[in-house]
Amino acid sequence: MISIARPQDSLIDWDGWVTPLHQFAQASGLTVSAYDALCVRQVGPLVGTASARLLDGSSLWRPDGPGSALERRVAAAVLAADAALPAAVPEACFHGLRVCSMPLTQFGQVYGVLLFGWCFGDFASPMACEQIAREAGLSGQALWNEVRLEAPVAQARMDSLRALLGTLVDAIDRQRETIAELNRVNRARELFLATVSHEMRTPLSALSMRLELMLRGVKDLPPAVESGLMSMRMHVQQEAGMIDDLIDAARTLTGQMSIARAPVSLGQVLRDALATIEVAAGAKALTVAVTPADYGDGVAVAADARRLQQVLWNLLLNAVKFTPPGGTIRVDVACGAEQVQIEVADSGQGIAESDLAHVFGAFNLQTDANATGLGLGLYIAHRIVELHDGALTVTSAGRGHGATFTVRLPRALAAPIP
User: Fold this and answer.
1) pLDDT band at 81 (very low <50, low <70, confident <90, very high)
2) Is 272 within 8 Å of 230 (Cβ atoms)?
């Protein structure tokens, strides 16, 4: 017995059924309705003939109409039957109008029923039309005038239409199964990523603390030991940075990353970000030029200072990483009529045109100079800027011609500092 999916078990996109079922009704001339697992009509009736349109304007398919009552009885019978057996799928007849049914299933569960037909299997008579019209509140002569112009749907044609509808239903339900499974896998992956990242951070924090204690607390360490401990500290910091990136990426994927806006000095945020790359830039003899000279101290931004600093730090770190010794890094801050703009440009290795579209993707590594990291920095930075209602873009003239990253924040978020 196939189990029945109740509303709490599955959220069904009934609106997605309207178009394909309407097209089927128009092409086949059958009337089609869809019912959920509680025998409530969710779609239809969708009509495809003049006589069906006439009936649609009557009381036949109103919520308290005789046609709706018949459909509910058939739907209930389908839901109570073993839908795996075609012979068990019920049908009904309303004064000669044939009504057929078909279960809707996902992952082996029946979540609804299609009712289709409302057509004569043989040539109708004025008497049958009079009986139907009497129950539907119509003129029997008006219904007969429409019905006599329409060909009946013989058993062979109904079987063909049933098979066609079955193919349509199966394709839609299998597609939705695939989407549901992909969503489940994505949620599991994101939960795994977040959980593992948190679990990895704890032992690294303990290891980092012990290394710091040894380096600061133990006197007269042999040079080789001190060098080894410092190398270990650097690697632990790199691993911790990658874990932080994983956690931020997991929060981004699950929609859990948030920002807390407050008035901050853009100049201070930029100075704090530049301070984190001073040593690395000095080691490569890079020239870092900032415009204007006050670093944007005259501009206040309603932003999450820590997250905005993270964005600028990522852009500056990439500029240092991919710029050869003796190169230049330029930071320009501008406050226009509608937006605040921060440009970070370098004279580094540049980005090929074919790679520009993938720069902000997750786990996107540029292996030429990126021996460490996971390729998540720009992906996270892009999302942080989006959360500020801004945009992060990149341009490059190609390999060997440097790259320019531009952060744009809405002008409404910024105001001069008195």
Assistant:
1) confident
2) no
**Contact status, residue 34 vs residue 129, Cβ threshold 8 Å:** no
What is the predicted pLDDT for the residue at 372? 53
pLDDT digits (tens, 9 = 90+) for 179-192: 777 777 777 766 77
Query: Hey, what CATH topology would domain 184-253 get?
Result: Helix Hairpins (1.10.287)
Question: With bands split at pLDDT 50, 70 and 90, how would you rate the model's confidence at 2?
Answer: very low
Question: How many C-beta atoms lie closer than 10 Å to residue 63's C-beta?
Answer: 10
DSSP 4: B
CB 267 within 8 A of CB 414: no
Determine if the pTM surpasses 0.90. Answer: no
Q: Which two tokens stand for residue 397?
A: 């003239």
Q: Are 115 and 42 in contact (CB under 8 A)?
A: no
CA distance 58 to 62: 8
CATH no. for 15-153: 3.30.450
Upper half-sphere CA count for residue 286 (Cβ side, 13 Å): 30
Instruction: Assign domain 262-416 to a CATH class.
Output: alpha beta
Q: Does a cis peptide bond (omega within 30 degrees of 0) precede residue 152?
A: no
Q: Collect contacts of 94-97 with beta carbons under 8 A, ≥24 apart.
A: 94/66, 94/67, 94/70, 94/118, 94/132, 95/128, 95/131, 95/132, 95/135, 96/120, 96/121, 96/122, 96/124, 96/125, 96/128, 96/132, 97/132
Cα distance between residue 308 and residue 315, in whole Å? 11
pLDDT exceeds cutoff 70 at 55 = yes
